[in-house]
Amino acid sequence: MNAKSSFTLTIDTDELKRARRERINRIAKWILPSTVLVLSLFIWHFYVTINEVPHYILPGPLKVAESTVTDWEILWPATLVTWRLTMWALVMAVAGGVILAVAFTQSRWVEMSFFPYAVILQVTPVIAVAPLLQIYVDSAFLAALLCAWIVAFFPILSNTTIGLKSADHNLQDLFSIYGATRWQRLRYLAAPSALPFFIGGLKIAGGLALIGAVVAEFVIGRAGTGLGLASTLLEASYRFNFGRLYAALILISLMGVVIFVIMSLISHLALRHWHESALKREQ
Amino acid sequence: MCSDRTSIENRSSLLTMEHIEKVFNGDVVALKDMNLQINLGDFVSLLGPSGCGKSTALRLIAGLLSPTSGSIQWSGGQSLDDLSIVFQEPTLMPWATVAKNVWLPFRLRGQSYKAVKSRILNVLSLVGLENFEDAYPRELSGGMKMRVSIARALVTNPRLILMDEPFAALDEITRLKLDNDLLELKEKIGCTVVFVTHSVFESVFLSDRIVVMAARPGRVIRELQIDAPYPRSGGFSTSVEYAEYNRTVSDALKDAMALAA
Ligand SMILES: Nc1ncnc2c1ncn2[C@@H]1O[C@H](COP(=O)(O)OP(=O)(O)OP(=O)(O)O)[C@@H](O)[C@H]1O
Ligand SMILES: [Mg+2]
């Protein structure tokens, strides 16, 4: 009787301890980075004011905030342009990468014929291609889109290709025994097996699409075409408008964060039931 | 016992492997002059040391490989379109629930889930997995995954089931339980089973015929009948008879290993 009650007691305290640790972890996950942010802003602010750093070298956080508000009319449309550029590049990268990956795995001839060119497309620095595109493609947006697409497309292609080939061998045999058609194999076996690989590629491509868009805007948006945030940033630097420059930079970073969050969400939704990467382990 | 024996001999042939030779990559002789007859209703075990070509023989029967020379004669003239296979690993699709995994053979033949749902649930309860139809494979233990794999093999009511060391990766207790259940299911369904195993005890407990194979090159060196009647869930595994069979089969296996060495 006595032993039993002390036994339940230890379990309870253990349980409580674990619950408390869990709660602290949850709070710390938000509190700690927020504290770091506030502290850095303070240090930044006081460094700038105490040393009287001129704003065309390093604007203080207040100056940046002020620019964000006053230049919102310029910044927000630019944000939308860069966002559209990035998203279209990503969508096209997914479409192109997946279609080509399927073609590669369905036919060795297609793979042999086109894989080297996919690699060449990937290894050629996009910054070297951009000026050419600017000459051949009339629309600056379209030229920038092509640049961003070239950068984002390869990880989707290569990951999906590997994924489509990664199906379990015994499952493949099972499909043979049950007389599966090519289409059934692709639809019910290769595609689900490729999903985690594809998602991995998508996560990389999301970040790369933004980088591609920014690079393209730097090169193509220079000629006064006034593209998105990166063009705005570049222009602000010519004018020594460092408040706007920093505001644009922060917006680009925020966009990157938003893309990352969206990709993580997609990954979670697609894989949560079955893939190791999405499973929470019981402690 | 005697009556059982005659009934075995009266069985009609399902397939005959004649002078089968299988060479991989031009120089690895996996099977050489293998002859084997499998009859309807048989429970045949292929027993032999590692690398003697047991899996290769099974894959030849399944049509996953074709022989380098020799032939497999099917009694109906054509290979079965309703055989199924169970591998050493459960080989489930991790992205699909238990029920959807069992649905696979039907799905590949264009049958909707609704149309076969009752059969799926039925076979799941047969293998002791009622109420698990919506679970994902990762939520199951090794033994339960194997049961799903068996359910998938049984659900189409195949005439022939090929099993390649299906329980080798499981613990002893789970394995004994599954051996028992397998025999029960086989009686219920009345199919033919070709069962690959490393274990003398398992082969004696399950089979009415044991085919002992030797390696390098892979071939059949002995066939032994186990004349104990089914069901064997009762005293068979503790009987003197069982111990005797085990000795005989062990000796045959030792001979096979000596040949290879
Ligand atoms: N696809 C293959 N390519 C080349 N050699 C192979 C292939 N499959 C099997 N072999 C060879 O054929 C021989 C028989 O292999 P098999 O897998 O049939 O043996 P096994 O009796 O099933 O062995 P185990 O008990 O270890 O599973 C081995 O020497 C093996 O290396
Ligand atoms: Mg094997």
In words, what does this structure look like?
The complex is a heterodimer of chains A (283) and B (261). Helices cover 83% and strands 0% of the residues of chain A. Chain A has 283 residues and is mostly helical. Chain A has two domains: 1-52; 61-278, MetI-like (MetI-like fold). The longest helix of chain A is centred in the first third of the chain and has 49 residues, at 2-50. Chain A is flat, with a radius of gyration of 26 Å. Chain B contains eight helices and nine strands. Chain B has helices at residues 2-9, 54-62, 98-107, 113-126, 142-154, 172-189, 200-206, 240-260, and strands at residues 13-24, 28-39, 43-47, 69-74, 83-86, 160-164, 192-197, 209-214, 219-225. Classes of the chains: A mainly alpha (283), B alpha/beta (261). Chain A binds chain B through residues 168, 170-171, 173-180, 184, 188-189, 192, 195, 273-275, 279, and chain B through 59, 62-64, 81, 83-85, 87, 89, 91, 93-96, 104-105, 107-109, 136-138. The structure holds adenosine-5'-triphosphate (ATP) and magnesium ion (MG).
- Which CATH class of the domain at 1-80 and 192-261 in chain B applies here? Alpha Beta
The beta-strand count of chain B equals 9
CATH fold call of the largest domain in chain A: MetI-like fold
Distance between the ends of chain A: 30 Å
Distance between the termini of chain B: 37 Å
Radius of gyration of chain A: 26 Å
Alpha-beta classification of chain B: alpha/beta
The tally of domains of chain A stands at 2
Number of helices of chain A: 10
Strand content of chain B: 15-25%
Helix content of chain B: 25-40%
Q: What's the number of helices of chain B? A: 8
> What is the H-and-E element order of chain A?
HHHHHHHHHH
Q: Which structural class best describes the helix and strand composition of chain A?
A: mainly alpha
Bound ligands:
adenosine-5'-triphosphate, magnesium ion
Q: Rough shape of chain B?
A: globular
